[in-house]
């Protein structure tokens, strides 16, 4: 009954020109197209369109001509009712399909989608800021940049630079392989990646799967200061701290070092207090021990005296016994 009601309500949409326009990404086109071809069907059924949620669409093979998985498309069609394995489903029969993006836009978006998939597969974990008063820091930046982003970083770091052993790592920041190699070759406590602002295309290297993999595997505390506040990359998602600008990356390290020094100072104060208490207890134990030895020695003297008295009494009784024995014999 529900199927008939739904079909009655949707009947005539295509005849009356009541069509729906939807934007989305094709998800399983290749698999469904191959299945349709194997069955000899001209219509490709059950293609999933990701349009802020999955939507099943059907269209002729001619409509899908030139399309691939991952393509962003605009489709026009009308809803239909399908009963699949006893379950009522609304699908969209497509009459027209077009690519709203240019080929370059399509390619860039596919690269981003591929990198996002790689990022999900990495499952990166957070590394904690090292609890040390003096740290080794590697700073990866553009060796050809005229923007002096490394100076911005040092200005943000301020006086905390004296507590860091800093190793500058100037590289070709637009090369994914060089960035990944610089990350992998670092053995510092803290790894910093900074660069100046620019167009979105300039930051593609920080969405690269090779760079993301290297950054995910790094054991150091990772900080990124890539571009300006409007720039965002996938590398920022992996980093333990993502700064809006290189100067903020430096100030973050300075603030963290201040917190570490504060914690270390509190810890040292607690250790000193506990050591003082231990010394006091040791002195009390020694005092009690000395008192106990004196008492033991006093008791030993008493025992000696009593033993001596006992021996004398025994000697006296022996003399008396001998005298009595002599008197009796006489």
UniProtKB/TrEMBL annotation:
Domain Exonuclease VII large subunit C-terminal: 147-307
InterPro entries per record: Exonuc_VII_L (IPR003753), Exonuc_VII_lsu_C (IPR020579)
Domain of life, per lineage: Bacteria
Residues annotated as signal peptide: none
PANTHER family in alphabetical order: EXODEOXYRIBONUCLEASE 7 LARGE SUBUNIT
Name of the protein: Exonuclease VII large subunit C-terminal domain-containing protein
């Amino acid at each position: 009954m529900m199927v008939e009601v739904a079909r009655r309500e949707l009947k005539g949409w295509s005849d009356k020109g009541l069509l729906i326009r939807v934007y989305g990404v094709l998800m399983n086109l290749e698999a469904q197209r191959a299945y349709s071809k194997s069955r000899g069907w001209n219509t490709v059924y059950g293609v999933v369109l990701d349009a802020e949620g999955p939507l099943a669409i059907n269209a002729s093979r001619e409509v899908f001509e030139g399309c691939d998985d991952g393509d962003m498309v605009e489709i026009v069609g009308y809803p239909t009712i399908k009963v699949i394995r006893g379950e009522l489903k609304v699908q969209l029969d497509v009459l027209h399909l077009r690519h709203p993006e240019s080929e370059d836009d399509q390619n860039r978006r596919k690269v981003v989608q591929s990198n996002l998939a790689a990022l999900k597969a990495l499952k990166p974990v957070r590394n904690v800021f090292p609890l040390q008063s003096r740290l080794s820091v590697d700073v990866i930046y553009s060796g050809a940049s005229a923007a002096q982003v490394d100076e911005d970083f040092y200005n943000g770091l301020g006086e905390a630079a004296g507590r860091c052993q800093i190793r500058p790592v100037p590289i070709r920041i637009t090369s994914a392989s060089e960035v990944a190699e610089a990350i992998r070759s670092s053995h510092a406590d803290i790894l910093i990646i900074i660069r100046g602002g620019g167009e979105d295309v300039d930051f593609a290297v920080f969405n690269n799967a090779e760079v993301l993999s290297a950054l995910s595997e790094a054991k150091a505390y990772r900080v990124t200061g890539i571009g300006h506040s409007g720039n965002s990359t996938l590398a920022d998602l992996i980093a333990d701290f993502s700064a809006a600008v290189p100067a903020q990356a430096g100030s973050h390290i300075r603030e963290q070092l201040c917190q570490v020094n504060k914690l270390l100072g509190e810890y040292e104060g607690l250790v000193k207090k506990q050591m003082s208490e231990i010394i006091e207890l040791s002195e009390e134990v020694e005092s009690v021990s000395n008192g106990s030895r004196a008492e033991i020695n006093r008791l030993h003297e008493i025992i000696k005296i009593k033993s001596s008295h006992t021996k004398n009494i025994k000697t006296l009784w022996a003399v008396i016994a001998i005298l009595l024995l002599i008197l009796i014999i006489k």
